[in-house]
Amino acid sequence: MEGKVEQELGSQNHHHHHNHPCVEISMEIHKVETPPKRSSLQKLKNRLKETFFPDDPLRQFKGQSAKQKWLLGFQYIFPILQWGPHYNLNLLKSDVVSGLTIASLAIPQGISYAKLANLPPIVGLYSSFVPPLVYAVLGSSKDLAVGPVSIASLLMGSMLRQEVSPAQDPLLFLQLAFTSTFFAGLFQASLGFLRLGFIIDFLSKATLIGFMAGAAIIVSLQQLKALLGITHFTKEMGLVPVMSSVFHNTKEWSWQTILMGFCFLVFLLVTRHISMKKPKLFWVSAGAPLLSVVVSTLFVFAFKAQHHGISVIGKLEQGLNPPSWNMLHFHGSHMGLVLKTGLITGIISLTEGIAVGRTFAALKNYQVDGNKEMIAIGVMNVVGSTTSCYITTGAFSRSAVNHNAGAKTAVSNIIMAVTVMVTLLFLMPLFQYTPNLVLGAIIVTAVIGLVDIPAAYQIWKVDKFDFVVMLCAFFGVIFISVQEGLALAVGISIFKMVLQMTRPKTVVLGNIPGTDIFRNRHQYKDAVPVPGFLILSIQAPINFANSNYLNDRNDDFVSNDISRTKILRWIQDYEEEEENIKMHSSLRFVVLDLAAVSAIDTNGVTFVQELRRVLEKKGVEASSIQDLVLVNPVGEVMEKLQKADGTHDLLQPNVLFLTVGEAVSSLFSSMKGVSSSHV
Amino acid sequence: MEGKVEQELGSQNHHHHHNHPCVEISMEIHKVETPPKRSSLQKLKNRLKETFFPDDPLRQFKGQSAKQKWLLGFQYIFPILQWGPHYNLNLLKSDVVSGLTIASLAIPQGISYAKLANLPPIVGLYSSFVPPLVYAVLGSSKDLAVGPVSIASLLMGSMLRQEVSPAQDPLLFLQLAFTSTFFAGLFQASLGFLRLGFIIDFLSKATLIGFMAGAAIIVSLQQLKALLGITHFTKEMGLVPVMSSVFHNTKEWSWQTILMGFCFLVFLLVTRHISMKKPKLFWVSAGAPLLSVVVSTLFVFAFKAQHHGISVIGKLEQGLNPPSWNMLHFHGSHMGLVLKTGLITGIISLTEGIAVGRTFAALKNYQVDGNKEMIAIGVMNVVGSTTSCYITTGAFSRSAVNHNAGAKTAVSNIIMAVTVMVTLLFLMPLFQYTPNLVLGAIIVTAVIGLVDIPAAYQIWKVDKFDFVVMLCAFFGVIFISVQEGLALAVGISIFKMVLQMTRPKTVVLGNIPGTDIFRNRHQYKDAVPVPGFLILSIQAPINFANSNYLNDRNDDFVSNDISRTKILRWIQDYEEEEENIKMHSSLRFVVLDLAAVSAIDTNGVTFVQELRRVLEKKGVEASSIQDLVLVNPVGEVMEKLQKADGTHDLLQPNVLFLTVGEAVSSLFSSMKGVSSSHV
Question: How far is residue A662 from each of residues A26, A510, A574, A628, A639, measured CA to CA in Å?
Fold first, then answer.
């Protein structure tokens, strides 16, 4: 068919490479087919399946015996049954090493993060004991190190502090924290059960990078209290109030604290740098925090430094997690806050947990099931909330250490939990003299890795709009608040998506000389227009959000008024183009390439019908043929046009083609016939 | 090139129609080009222009003299300057006839609708006097009959009644109504100024049909109070409370009222039916309401029927609109409610006004500018709120009468306003004995046309999902509340759009025998797969909302685990397909047709890169080539892939093609070379 188009375009004298007679094929026109009929129920079923079960979780059950099905079912719910039976001593050796390593990190971090959430330090240790055990049974990731994390701790602390002061009413604050954790877990598990896991996809990469960097800076700024030894520190989180608090209290700065804090911070950053350069030396950065805690505690104890301006943690209780279900509040004046806190911390910690799980699973080439992971993390938090734990998830930094330390299965979490248990039972008095500044240094070192400058640069290079979204998240978190910065970035991302929908791309196609290929004339400078034809490609679903933009019914073509809408504007442009006026080639056919229109709704169908009507009317006025030609509609669009189009005007074979090339070659010849008979 | 593909596929022995040697073209491969470089600033400018100025309003100013520009500018702001100078006696004759006709409709409807909004009846007449005059100066529609409308009246009345009782505190209620009108106008005008007119596009056809039908039923049910003569009627709007109120007060029913109401209702419905059948007899239904008012008033006056259970309007004030700017509240406890009411009634009345304007402009082949109309309607309401008018817009029923009565310009609105003015000045005492039942009958007749069964059936036929949206709007309005029903329907529509985005369509393409065309194998049963190739077409922008769905990085191909995501599932399907196993044609190339991917973001770019990496890894494991081939990316996608792809692995000429046909024919030959050298 190429030869045909070629020959007919020959009069335009564009640079042709070939010219040869393949005419006999060119006239073969292929029919546009509709997909096989399905009932609405079948379609609905298919759509629901595609939405909620894209992973087809029951696939493995097909064709199995009943007993096998039960076994597979149990294994599906409790992945430990899958790998447990094959567990052996070699695996245990690796897991013990990695378990002890992450425990040495989890203990100081647990204490630090609990303080970040304005909770008693011991709650951080409780949260490193029960949740890892629950996750070991339910979780499908082999590398996830479970426990409290910095951003969720920060979020929970700052949100609850809006209504309750942790200093004045510590018991109520603790109760609200446990209740929020309960709701966060419930919400996470429900997302998994209802297979709504795709909700976390709405946190795009750009949003997350901006958010994490902002949160890291907010968290680091909070540590200035401990690192500078300030006693009267602001209760707010924003950059401005924190910096003003720091510089208005310069007389509270303690040089002993600053000196000691600086030393430990440098030590921790150097060890972190070493481990980043040589992943084999993971134990350098993994052991450093515990070593810092031990050294600083001994130092304080030896020199009675607590009397010289160094603030210490103070007395901690001893013993395992007390039950806390009687502390959960399900009514009262703070319910709204608790639900909101649960929702937001739940989503954020879920995002971190799933992302971390996926990252390491990809490295080791196994899989984690998003919805199942959500259930595991959710159940873990619900159980946690009844055993004095606050929100936990898979922590990025500790999981990386876990992975590097050679963790083979979730047993490393069990080893860690046992280590924490021993600490809780016997070693708590040792932390009495641990200085707060070393905890601050540990947090700063942990969160500094969340500021990902190379990733930000990559986003800037690829997509400026995404970069703006990232900046919004970043500055929103720093200057407004953690949760509002996040909401802002998500809102902008979704708004962009909706805007893309309301302003779909419409491009004019031209023929690439020597072929029957039609491409965007803006992108392919070679592509030439076909006289008498306006070939448009719409690249979005046509629906209520954009049909008005594409077509406005009330434009007056004849007058020289402002033509206002996309398609009609293209038509006017065509008519005003000098070349066309010179060549007297008035517009005969508007060809609409529907290949990229993936869906259509009733508004979209009306749009196509109206466009056809308008063109016909215009054709009558200009006493020429002006017809709407549709090319290559996908199955769904074809079906809906058929149903809506009682008279089948739109889908007659002479205005419906499989390719633009066939449409042009077929119509070009018919046009010649008409115009010659006119003359 | 067709011949080539044909020949190579020959081994499959599918029904071929042709087989002939056009091989020399087939090997000509066309380059994928990138669009000409533009700076980010240019792109941003373009994008903003496309979003906010798709209609290019400054187009007409180009190349004009300064004086001409000023004149055009004034004419743009005040369309009356455009048509005013050409006004003549013939036009005036038509406008007087149509103006008097709509006045005879506007007076009884104005009184009725004001009662629907729980406002004094005279406010309805005030609102039919000032706003039409303002619109005549600013508006660009020639047919719009401006005044109070049923749905906006209902909405304003029911929303304000949530906080203030019109019976107990009528002055405050009136003040809130004026203030809401002010904010509605401000909001409408801002939408126009900020060129955000596309916001009203989010009310899809399905939503509007369901909403209007539900509102019509709610409005009609409210008229049962007047038509049955019930004195203790519920204050609620829902179907359930209204029906229970009607049947719990049967002893209040007045047979005189019912009989008389029934007679007038039948009369009005019959006249409406006549005018609908014969549009020439428009005056039958147009004059009927005023005639009913006159006849029923005379009847009541003559027989002293007000003493026999027939309730009447009662004494009305006389005189023109008093100023009301001192009644606008800009602070106080009801501000939230007033803002919300203004926003919702503003959007709804704007939608009606614009839709009506567009409909009649299309019939007469002139244009109305959406954003300009919004400014006109907004200014009209702001002015109205300072002159004792409540919310007004272009009414559908009256505009239809206006059009049929031969209105030529907005002068018919001026004639109507003058008639209303005369009524306000001299005729108000005559309405003292007008029975409420006739107002009820007028409202029912007016709103019954809003229930559009044929349109609902059409939606059912074309798109089941839109039908569900329509039902949600309908039942939401009837059973929950007017504004919540509307919000529900809009929410569902947007949710569907977002869902379409998160679950983009991915289809497998096959070769249509005898051509180089590749199409959806599900839609085109003829299309045959090419052995060794998996050809996929993605039909949506690839972005953060769907890149996780399309590709999950951590699937294990080698094990028999559940493969979980869309593209990797297709690959697995390919490998498990019996035919492929039998033919030992293991997968060599995954061809991704990107023609329908209209945009991509950083997440999308990462998706493509990851997919390539995964395929390469898999290829190494299976010791075969597994390469990702991209076909026909649009300009923006091409650009972003280039920027992100430092090493240009993705865009090397051997994995980037202009058409699927060229990709397959080129790779097929290279594959043969490799496999023969393997053997």
Answer: 7, 14, 22, 15, 22
Interface residue A471 vs chain B (CB under 8 A): no
Q: Which residues of A touch B53 (CB under 8 A)?
A: none
* Residue of B43, B545, B658 lying closest to A201 (CB–CB): B545
Check: CB of residue A473 under 8 Å from CB of residue A488.
Answer: yes
Whether A233 and A340 share a structural domain: yes
Residues B549 and B440 in one domain: no
* Contact across the interface for B56 and A569, Cβ inside 8 Å: yes
- Whole-number pLDDT of residue B4: 42
- In angstroms, the CA B562 to CA A362 distance is 15
**Residue A127 touches partner B, C-beta closer than 8 Å:** no
Q: Does B649 touch chain A (CB under 8 A)?
A: no
CB distance from A61 to chain B under 8 Å? no
Residue A57 lies in a domain: no
Question: Do residues A292 and A331 both lie within one domain?
Answer: yes
Task: Report how far residue B156's alpha carbon sits from residue B138's, in angstroms, rounded to the nearest whole number.
Answer: 25
In a domain, A54, yes or no: no
Structure tokens at A111: 């204490």
Q: Which of residues 362-391 of A touch B (CB under 8 A)?
A: 362, 365-370
Q: Which domain holds residue A642?
A: 2-35+504-678
- DSSP state letters, B65-127: -HHHHHHHHHHHH-THHHHGGG--HHHHHHHHHHHHHHHHHHHHHHHHHHHHTTS-HHHHHHT
Identify the band that residue A188 occupies on the pLDDT scale cut at 50, 70 and 90. very high
Residues of chain B contacting residue A458, judged by C-beta atoms under 8 Å apart: 602, 644
Q: Which residue of B has its CA nearest to A565?
A: B55
Residues of chain B with pLDDT under 50: 1-27, 552-564, 675-679
Number of structural domains chain B divides into:
2
- A557 and A475 in a single domain? The answer is no
Give the residue from A471, A497, A523 where a domain finishes: A497
How much is the pLDDT for B129?
A: 94
**What's the pLDDT tens digit per position in A110-120?**
988 998 899 99
A634 and B505 within 8 Å at the Cβ level: the answer is yes
Are the C-beta atoms of residues B478 and B217 closer than 8 Å to each other? yes
User: Among residues A456, A474, A497, which one ends one of the domains?
Assistant: A497
pLDDT for the residue numbered A62: 66
Whether residue A197 lies inside any domain: the answer is yes
CATH code, domain with A614: 3.30.750.24
Flag whether B588 is in a domain: yes
Instruction: Say if residues B132 and B417 touch (Cβ distance below 8 Å).
Output: yes
CB A524 within 8 Å of CB A568: no
| Whether A466 and A526 share a structural domain | no
Instruction: For residue range A519-569, list pLDDT tens digits in order.
Output: 888 888 888 888 888 888 888 788 777 776 665 433 333 232 333 456 777
Residues of B in contact with A633 (CB under 8 A): none
pTM for this model (two decimals): 0.70
Contact at CB, B562 and A658, closer than 8 angstroms: no
B554 contacts in A (CB within 8 Å)?
Answer: 358, 361-362, 365-368
Q: Residues B425, B280: one domain?
A: yes
Q: CA of A545 to nearest chain B CA: how many angstroms apart?
A: 5
Q: B204 in helix, strand or coil?
A: coil
**Which of helix, strand or coil describes residue B530?**
coil
* B630, β-bridge pairs: B592, B656
- The two tokens of residue A496 are 């962009």
Same domain assignment for residues A424 and A523? no
pLDDT of residue A60: 64
Q: For residue A506, is pLDDT > 90?
A: no
Asked if the C-beta of A2 comes within 8 angstroms of chain B's C-beta atoms, the answer is yes
What distances in angstroms separate CA A491 from CA A41, A207, A543, one per listed residue?
34, 10, 22
Measured distance CA(A313)–CA(A291) in Å, rounded: 17
